[in-house]
Amino acid sequence: MKKNVIRQTIIDTATRLFYKQGYNGTGINQIIEEAGISKTSLYQNFKSKEDLLMVYLEETGAETDAALKAAADKHEDPKDKVLAVFDYLDDLVQQKEYYGCNFLNIVSEMPKEAVRVRKQIKKQKDNVRNLFARILKPVQKEAMADELYTLFEGALIGNKVHDDVWPIRSARNIVNKLL
Predict the structure, then answer these.
(1) What are the residue ranges spanned by the domains of the chain?
(2) Cβ-count burial of 175 within 10 angstroms (0-12 exposed, 13-18 middle, 19+ buried)?
(3) Average pLDDT rounded to a whole number, residues 123-138
(4) CATH superfamily of 1-46
(5) Mean pLDDT of the 146-163 span
(6) Among 18, 22, 77, 108, which is most buried by a count of CB atoms within 10 Å?
(7) Quick one: DSSP state of residue 164?
(8) Category of 38 on φ-ψ map: left (φ > 0), alpha (ψ -120 to 50) or beta
(9) Does domain 48-178 have CATH number 2.40.400.10?
(10) Which residue ranges hold the DNA-binding region (predicted)?
(11) To the nearest whole percent, how much of the chain has pLDDT over 90?
């Protein structure tokens, strides 16, 4: 395999395993075996398992940001844009291969000392807060971004705990009343 193909195979394999099994539940040997590569190939591309995790978080963060923005951009009215973000969550959590928020899953496994990982997760979560602020700026309600973000995160956590869609729908109903 060519170097960039090997690298992408490693990333794809680690992405699937980190999401489904968690960071701590995924070993380097499993990634190597399932990617069909040698240990040397892995370490030629990534210095550590954490470096591979960082790529996973960066790529997944960019995909998540784009998906949330795309959901919001289907509408003109700021309220409809925000509600569309919650509708996106509603659809997302009902997918067969949904195992929870990628970032909340990982951050729950990380010790406080994992500063680099926590910083990347915080960056992605701040992007969600900033999306809400940008959506609400035209109607001078951008100060509500923190409240909406809190409902967004609470809905994700509630969904993970209860394995049900009602926390997402409850949060959406609150947002509908607030806006």
Answers:
(1) 1-46, 48-178
(2) buried
(3) 98
(4) Homeodomain-like (1.10.10.60)
(5) 97
(6) 18
(7) S
(8) beta
(9) no
(10) 27-46
(11) 98
